[in-house]
Amino acid sequence: MAELSQTDLDGIYAFAVKLGKDAGALLWKTAQLRMGDDAASAAEKDHVEKENAVDLVTETDENVEAFIKEQIAQKYPSHKFVGEESYSKGASRDYLIDDEPTWCVDPIDGTVNYIHLFPMFCVSVAFIYKSKPVIGVINAPFLRQFFSSCSGRGAWLNETQPLPLVRNPVPPMPENAPKGCVFSCEWGKDRRDQPDGNMHRKIESFVNMAAEIGGRDGRGGMVHGMRSLGSATLDLAYVAMGSFDIWWEGGCWEWDVAAGIAILNEAGGLITTANPPQDEATCTIEEVKLGSRLYLAIRAAGPSSTETGRQSQERTVREVWRRVRNLDYSRPGA
Ligand code: LIP
């Protein structure tokens, strides 16, 4: 495998930015069709169920992915491609990303939002090299928000606003985090009403984070607010902005998070596992495994008089782990 230089990466980044814009324009055109009342609009309004009644796909998911795949195949025929819709059609649920140059794409992240025309939907394009997302492009056409980053080139909103938004100085994490934080989380697609299953463990964790300090047997977090955008990609982009302090989710896939992880890393954020390790109070905080389906993200943080920014991020991770339950989203090869 040929080594990619910064110049190579810059070229791939410029291509990814144009691809994100073109795919976003396609998505916006069909979104407007959904607002219409002619025959074309009617056809556009269909959707199909995949794994269950909340795992949905539209013709636009398929078309936008096919467009992106074709553009990449023309420009970089040797690069690998992992896309939500082409992957979902296969039987395997293996983790396919290795050190080879790979594009990881979600044509519409927030498909349910798109179907209901709730503006939190976007195109997500990531370039992965040596198993790490090094380029991320997210285009949310309804919001007119375009997020992008390239390793060594910073993270940006609409190509002009550097991330995080508050940066002179970047504030440390709140002293009693998660108290004082905006906590973002998602219900996800596993809605099985099983005692102590994923859904009930999420609910218990959400209530812990919301409850008053001292409540819930000492697990109350008294967060400033709870938010659910219905899009892991935009949740991560908003952590990269610093608008969300924390994002916690289990169940989404590499295409839902790869671009967001690239952008948050370049903005100075921290991403690790959603599941509290045995020795959560003392263990080393490992970088997240892209295919783990378990994610905990913390915004960029600056130093305080007593801590480095990283120390305040790690303190926050441990305080979140103390309040959330382990989730089960195992898969072969991750
Ligand atoms: C969505 C994720 C979201 C998750 C949803 C779904 P999709 O991706 O972005 O975080 O909670 O269940 O997985 O299906 O819209 O690409």
UniProtKB/TrEMBL annotation:
Its EC number is 3.1.3.25. InterPro entries: IMPase (IPR033942), Inositol_monoP_metal-BS (IPR020583), Inositol_monophosphatase-like (IPR000760), Inositol_monophosphatase_CS (IPR020550). Pathway: Polyol metabolism; myo-inositol biosynthesis; myo-inositol from D-glucose 6-phosphate: step 2/2. Keywords: Hydrolase, Magnesium, Metal-binding, Quinate metabolism. The keyword DNA repair does not apply. Mg(2+) binds at E84, D106, I108, D109, D256. Coiled coil: none annotated. It is an enzyme of class 3 (hydrolase). GO terms for molecular function: inositol monophosphate 1-phosphatase activity; metal ion binding. One of its GO terms (biological process) is phosphatidylinositol phosphate biosynthetic process. It catalyses: a myo-inositol phosphate + H2O = myo-inositol + phosphate. Its cofactor is Mg(2+). PANTHER family: INOSITOL MONOPHOSPHATASE, PROTEIN QUTG. Belongs to the inositol monophosphatase superfamily. This is Inositol-1-monophosphatase.
